[in-house]
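INFO worker-7 received task bundle
INFO bundle size: 2
INFO processing item 0
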Amino acid sequence: MLELIDSLRYKVKQVRLLKERRRERIDSQADRIIDGYLTRKGRFGSRRPPVKSDLIDIDAVTEPKIAQTKFASFEKFSEIQLKEVEASNELCRKEGNSKIKVHKVENIDNGNGFNVAGKILPKYTFQLGNTENPQFRILVLAGTHGGESRLARAVLEGIIQLAHPGEERYKLLKKGTILFDPVVDPGGFNNQTRGAVTREGMGVNAPLLGEGWAQPGLPNPWGLGDRNSAQGRNSLEAQDVLTRSNQAHYRKILGGKATWVYDVHETCEFTHWPDLAFTYGGILLMAHLYVSDTRLASLNQLEPGLGWWRKLKSFINDHNPLEGPIYREQLLWHDPRLQKIIRIRNRIRELGQRTMEERFDRAFLFLPQVERDIRIDESIYIGGMMFRIPQILLGPDVLGFEGLTSESFQQDLVVRAKQTLAALEAQLKVIGLSYNGERDVEND
């Protein structure tokens, strides 16, 4: 009997060893594929070192800082936020740090805080920059999904970094204002849960994936203890007080409008399928841009003007799960707003961070029962058209603002946080400072 047990243990050990070796091979292959394209001028150019950011030092995010937040309650994280912001503001006179304004979000139903785990707790947002006559107004959100709370720590790091002295930071903050909400949903943050919604925007006890969009009775691994389902509904009647209070607060602070919204998300730690896409994929950018009915009609009327060979290729693409209608993508690619997003994607790569490289992007397409959006370029999609159909609206859309959702497909928490800060820095550069790309990279 003991010999049999020893034999089984040996076999298990051998299987684990083989799996680990396979993992190492896949990891090495992914590094060669993705990292080889990060900072090159082109696919066949020589490798370039990452650019050092003059706005946010992404390497300032460390594992201890992430661990500090990983199991923190919302109440504890609020204390961390206020303490770090207060320390930064104390340096304002000594070192010339930019002043961080602290705003309390008002509960529009009763004026007090919000119910989090049986306690009425205050909720805060933080603002940097020119509030008198801003040329741009940027809103940065994190924690829309309660189970994605680690990126709240990354956004807080971004706030503190931007408050440091620096010529480019002063230039950015002189031009416009940035409002940060690191925890959109305090209840979800506290419970480490996220909800799910049907195509009609109704809350359900089922995940969006798994043999259908919403199967009643199918266990929901995220739970429904947060406000995610309410955040995703498109009517005021269906939204809860937290969502309505958040929106009223954003509009009040930003003067009723925003130039840009950055809504940051992350893959859940327990998600391993498809393994390659979720483990190595990097940042995927989802554009939330309003396209008029006339514009949509013109996009769809391009087909009659195509040559027979282009029609054939378009027909093949329409029936190929890896491709989409090429004529729409080509026209959308030249949209000025999407050109900005392409520059944001390129800046993320300049900073040495991964974006969703093509073959891993394609692996993501095989998730069951998920309609794909229109792909504009590698790692860039436009999501407005898909979400018009199910009437589920994400952060930028539900606020009536245009912007970008980024999804970090990485299992390593620190890498995920660095990718998020790189995406934040890139958007502040392009939207706030009209950044077009590194001169030496372009002219080399």
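INFO item 0 finished
INFO processing item 1
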Amino acid sequence: MNIGKELNYQWQVNVLGRSALRLNRILMARKAGKGQLGKSRLLTPPLNTSIWTKELIGQHYLRGRYANSHGKVAWVTSGAPIEFLKALDFYLLYPENHGALCGAARAAEGLSIEAEKAGYSRDICSYARTDIGAMLSGKTPVGRLPKPDLLLACTNICQTVLHWYRVLAHHFQVPLILIDTPFIYTEMTDHAVAFVKAQLEEAIIVAEKVAGKPLDPRRFKEVTRLSMLASELWLELLRRNRHRPAPISVFDQFTQMAPIVEMRGEASTVDLYAAMLKEVDQRIEQGIGVVPEERLRLLWDNLPVWYRLRYLAEFLGAHGAVIVASTYTNAWAELGPQMDPEHPMESMARTYMYPILNRGTGEKLATMRQMIQDYHLDGAILHSDRSCKPYSVGQMDQRDRLMRQDDLPALLLEADHNDPRSYSEEQVANRLTAFMEMLEAA
């Protein structure tokens, strides 16, 4: 260990950085106390605990800025089994989460263009183009990204990650671990679980070599336990929207889900969601809804439109509509019941085959139908995402079946989760207006 670099890491991250982030949290809390945080005449102010979320995200990327001088770094896909890496003390960077942050910060278009100039097609996932553009240009809203010592890609979300991470491996000249999860057409078989478990066992050997130390079984179980607890708390947060009026919207969930994706296995994530759940319960007791005059309750399918979250929330809020459930945010809540800290290897194999994109389109339709009942929904918006084809496949049939078989009004809304060049404000506004008029008439 380089003593000078380690001292600089501790000074920059745990002294200066934490102090600055904590001061910012205090200042934001004061604004929240005065009703000055996220002011909107159409929506209830955001949760006070959302300030804590921002602090945790800030700490995460601050650690990343100096991570290479402190320990080993792994870049991982959002649905990857990361508990063994966390137990080996890798700093984990999620390029998809970084891509979403770039989208929300309106930096994704410029970074995508950087990738396209290098020959990458605009038809590729806009997360991939955003991060390849950041890799090639060195530009990022978070200041600097750490160089990976290891890459981990899991095919349970899409096949794009396989090719995307091969590009990263070639660029950085580091090992790439691929976890190939069999697609679940009907049910999860013991053979499929054994197949994924064998890959995980091989992956741990590679990760131990890069980390320079063996995996501690007790630490592995503890990280798995923390992941399970965070997922269970996240599930309870989502379920609170069964109440009317809904205490938070899916747009809130989109911004509050970052820790469950990129900070699973950390005690701070469990503490955050426990505090958030308590605040949401207080809202329920006081009858506070995210839309003060809630009249319509909707479902959202697919990824968010990161660069227009506020606009969409206020547009719908003006019509008394709130999106209370989402297949996307629910995907992270579903993982908790699959986890078993006492059997972390088999547990991981089962858990990470379970994400919604690794199951048939009929499974997603069944999930939406369950949400219609549980959340008492009046309609559904299916985001037909130009660059997330695995999530968008089957949506036309799903919309038609919801309308014909479930008598639920459903809208197919065309956009892109990260690239504003594939988004038409006028078209979106016209379609949403017509949809709201139809729902209000009904």
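INFO item 1 finished
INFO post-check item 1: The chain has a mean pLDDT of 95.
INFO post-check item 1: The chain has one domain: 3-441.
INFO worker-7 idle
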